[in-house]
Amino acid sequence: MKTFVIGIGGVTNGGKTTLAKNLQKRLPNCSIISQDNFFKPESEIETDENGFLQYDVLEALNMEEMMSAVSCWMESAAHPLASTDRGNTEEIPILIIEGFLLYNYNTRIYEPPDTPGYFEGHVWPMYLKHRKEMENISWEIVYLDGTKSEEDLFSQVYEDLIQELAKQKCLQVTA
């Protein structure tokens, strides 16, 4: 069965989960796997020289469990993970995987505010490191402008996805 996987990355508290949930409400047969569900226990998270817990590194995550969840979704004919299937079995199953890698630093507003120095000293440098790694991957990646409104970002992503799904359906029919 053909599937469609969407990755949403961005800086911590940058709106990834909000975007994913909004897309899930509008896209049929759509599931979400959130990287936030795979953090190791706090007792296993390292602390930096400033005393900040290092949540914004891959070592803070149980990636084996996350990859297992993705594999289970890919292998499952029913795709039961939080599906919003509206009963249309002809729809391509969609998986949104969201985690920390992408959005814009300048407009980040976090309530309650971070401990002074945490974002500049840890979150942002880790984002830059991970983004640089992503730039070396040959996948088709669309970078979003984090200065745009939540509604504008949603509209842009939703329109792109609808166009791509239409292409996939055409390919599926002709194959």
SSE layout:
Layout: E1 4-10, H1 16-26, E2 30-34, H2 63-75, E3 94-100, H3 118-135, H4 150-174
Parallel strand pairs: 1-3, 2-3
Describe the structure.
- With 175 residues, this protein is an alpha/beta fold.
- 38% of the residues lie in helices and 11% in strands.
- Strand 2, helix 2 and strand 3 (94-100) form a beta-alpha-beta unit.
- The longest helix has 25 residues, at 150-174.
Task: Please provide a brief summary of the model.
The chain has 175 residues and is of the alpha/beta class. It contains 4 helices and 3 strands, in the order βαβαβαα.
Largest sheet: 3 strands, parallel
The H-and-E topology, N to C, reads as: EHEHEHH
* Mean pLDDT rating: 77
Low-confidence stretches: 77-89, 101-108
Number of H- or I-type helical stretches: 4
What's the arrangement of strands in the largest beta sheet?
A: 1-3-2
Total beta strand runs: 3
Strand content: 5-15%
Give the overall shape: globular
Q: Helices and strands: which structural class?
A: alpha/beta
Beginning-to-end CA distance, first to last residue: 12 Å
- Fraction of residues in helices? 25-40%
User: What Rg is obtained from the alpha carbons, in whole angstroms?
Assistant: 17 Å
